[in-house]
Amino acid sequence: MSRRIAFVASPSDESQAALADLRKRYGETPVEEADVVVALGGDGFMLRTLHRHMARKLPFYGMKLGTVGFLLNQHHVDDLEARIERAQPAVLRPLVMRASTEAGTTVEALAFNEVSLLRQTKQAAHVRVSINGAVKIDELMCDGVLVATPAGSTAYNLSAHGPILPFGSQLLAMTPISPFRPRRWRGAVLPARLEIRFDVLDPYKRPVSATADSNEVRDVVEVIVRESTEQTVTLLFDPEHNLEERIINEQFTF
Predict the structure, then answer these.
(1) Residue 108 in contact with residue 79, Cβ under 8 Å?
(2) What are the structural domains, with CATH classification, of the chain?
(3) Residue 184: its pLDDT value, please?
(4) Which stretches does DSSP call E strand in the chain?
(5) Bond from prior residue into 89 cis (ω within 30 degrees of 0)
(6) Under DSSP, is residue 60 helix (H, G, I), strand (E, B) or coil?
(7) What are the distances in angstroms from CA 156 to CA 23, 29, 137, 159, 176?
């Protein structure tokens, strides 16, 4: 029995042309009636697709028509239904960010890649770091700091010299961005079950923003990060492009 496929695509000309071709070949099903969502674009578009449609609890199969495509499969139009049937599932559990602002508002957002705190001005950020209520760093002076999932550890985290985490390891990477004090601290690898809290010191002189994937909150004073215990999404990968194997291979890429 064939699956009902909903196709979504980024605005790029290449993705839109592929969208028209695939809909002509395999038909067009609304997301509300679909069994699987096929996303055409890059990693950024796939993340936006996950955020937009995760509540429907459908599996997502991506095809690379963007720049990086770490969360995607190769773009081929033939035998798509068979590829989806033999695809291997990878279950992602997002981070939950709860950010409190100077104005007294609280914003919650999910992150499949990372939660990052970044300085908003030329002044370095001053942040206190606590784990499960215990202060671990009284004053972290830096351009920023991030918490990455295993799936996100090969993205911004890696470019900030953070560790690559094996998929399914139930670990998080906490990585400073251009740290000045403590000078020798290079980050931490933490069990995913822990709650991480960042308190912004002197937020008026040294304002800080917080971002969960692409959802930014300005002028934060406190950010709490934990792994979601309720929400997951399932990505589908061709056997030859297994996500676990890709993450392992990234550790041997020069």
Answers:
(1) no
(2) 5-93+232-250 (3.40.50.10330), 95-227 (2.60.200.30)
(3) 86
(4) 5-9, 36-41, 59-64, 88-92, 95-101, 106-111, 114-119, 125-131, 134-142, 144-148, 171-177, 188-191, 196-200, 208-212, 215-217, 220-227, 233-237
(5) no
(6) strand
(7) 34, 34, 22, 5, 11
SS3 24: helix
Nearest to 63 by CA among 107, 132, 9: 9
Sheet with 106-111, edge to edge strand ranges: 106-111, 95-101, 220-227, 196-200, 125-131, 134-142
Task: Quote the pLDDT of residue 37.
Answer: 98
Distance CA 40, CA 18 (A): 8
Task: Name the DSSP class of 31.
Answer: G
Amino acid, single-letter form, for residue 40: L
Q: What are phi and psi of 135, to 5 degrees?
A: -70, 125
Catalytic residues: 43
How would residue 153 be classed by pLDDT, with cut points 50, 70 and 90?
very high
* 228 DSSP assignment: -
pLDDT digits (tens, 9 = 90+) for 194-244: 999 999 999 999 999 999 998 999 999 999 999 999 999 999 999 987 888
**Residue whose token pair is 């079950």:** 193
Tokens of 28: 């067009």
